[in-house]
Structure formats: structure tokens, C-alpha cells
Write a structure and sequence with these properties.
alpha/beta; three-stranded mixed β-sheet; 7 strands
């Protein structure tokens, strides 16, 4: 498993699922073209890029390049790295038919091709194993802080997202990814204390 400094930006949910089995780094999805109108998501991506850099990994079709170019105009070029998968004809197993252009997306290519694309991008590889990672905010931390699994957790999460200027619709898992991109556990505790 590759451990990266940069956060990877992908188009959709299935791309994110694929990447989480290959890399040890937060993976943020744009929601496809939704990112064009989603000012909260754009702001989150800019914050993450400023904090740790982003690696854009979109499909190799025209839609993927439109999203890539949009992000290129949203985030300073010095904070972006680009990974490209080859244009391979085919369809993903979960789909009844291939995409409009007939190419495999990120979710459809092999792990080896994705790893090769990431390595070729110049991404900062921290190590080959996730076992040395420390200081990451966990779901247990969210529970202990009252952000999940408690009576008023939803209300506290909503207040925290507002305080941090993050998209209000983030799920607990998406919020956890974003928090790990931007803050330490100690910083999160201080934000929660401030809200309470």
C-alpha cells in the first residue's frame, strides 16, 4: 500500500472505493461535474491543497479532463500533481454497457496501472506500509468527542462543519477524511471545546 503526502481527488464514489484499497491517504470525490457549482467543495479542495497538496486522478475521457482543467483553475498549480491512467477500451464490471467514449475509468483499471500513474506523477510517497502512520483522527476519536454515536452528535457535527467552513452535507466518513487532511487530533479537540 502506498502512503502519500498528497490527498487524491477523484470523480466519484467507485473511484474512491478503488483507491482506498491501494493508497494510504485521504481520497476526496468531486461528485463528477457537481464540483463546478459546489462552492463548499471547491473551498474544501483549496484548503486541502494548501495544507498538503492534491493529486488529481480523473478518468482518461473528455469528462475527466474537463474536471481536471476546472480544478487546475481553482487551485494554484504549485499545489497540484497530476496522475494519468491510460486510455483503455472496455467497461467496468458493475456497468451494463461501456461509457460514451468506451474507455475504462479509474475504477476499471488495474491496481498496478494506478500505482504506476501515481508514481509517475511525482507524488510524495511516504512509505510502502500504512503501519507507521500515527496521529490520525479515528472514528473512535469522533465518538469520544461526541461527534458520532451520541444523542446530540448530528447537531455537534453540523456546528463543527460550520465552524470549520466545510460543506454542511459531509457524511461522517467524508468529514473524517477532510479532518485528517487539515487538522491534528489536538486541533480537533480544541474546536469541539470551543463549540461546546
Amino acid at each position: 500500500m502506498l502512503s502519500l503526502k498528497e490527498t487524491i481527488i477523484v470523480e466519484g464514489r467507485y473511484d474512491k472505493i478503488k483507491l482506498k484499497s491501494i493508497v494510504d491517504t485521504p481520497v476526496i470525490e468531486t461528485g463528477g461535474f457537481r464540483v463546478f457549482k459546489d462552492k463548499e467543495k471547491q473551498s474544501l479542495i483549496r484548503k486541502i491543497a494548501e495544507n498538503r497538496g492534491i493529486l488529481i486522478l480523473t478518468d482518461s475521457d473528455s469528462g475527466g479532463f474537463v474536471i481536471r482543467n476546472f480544478l487546475r483553475g481553482t487551485v494554484p498549480e504549485s499545489q497540484i500533481k497530476h496522475a494519468y491512467i491510460p486510455q483503455l477500451e472496455g467497461k467496468e464490471k458493475r456497468k451494463a454497457e461501456s461509457s460514451k467514449e468506451g474507455f475504462l475509468g479509474v475504477e476499471g483499471v488495474t491496481d498496478e496501472l494506478i500505482i504506476e500513474a501515481i508514481r509517475s506523477s511525482g507524488a510524495t510517497v511516504l512509505g510502502e506500509s500504512a503501519e507507521n502512520k500515527s496521529g490520525e483522527i479515528t472514528k473512535t476519536d469522533l465518538y469520544v468527542l461526541g461527534l458520532s454515536g451520541r444523542e446530540n452528535s448530528a447537531k455537534l457535527r453540523s456546528a463543527l462543519l460550520k465552524e470549520l467552513g466545510m460543506p454542511s452535507y459531509l457524511t461522517t466518513n467524508a468529514m473524517l477524511s477532510a479532518l485528517n487532511c487539515l487538522y491534528s487530533l489536538k486541533e480537533l479537540k480544541s474546536f469541539v471545546d470551543k463549540i461546546e
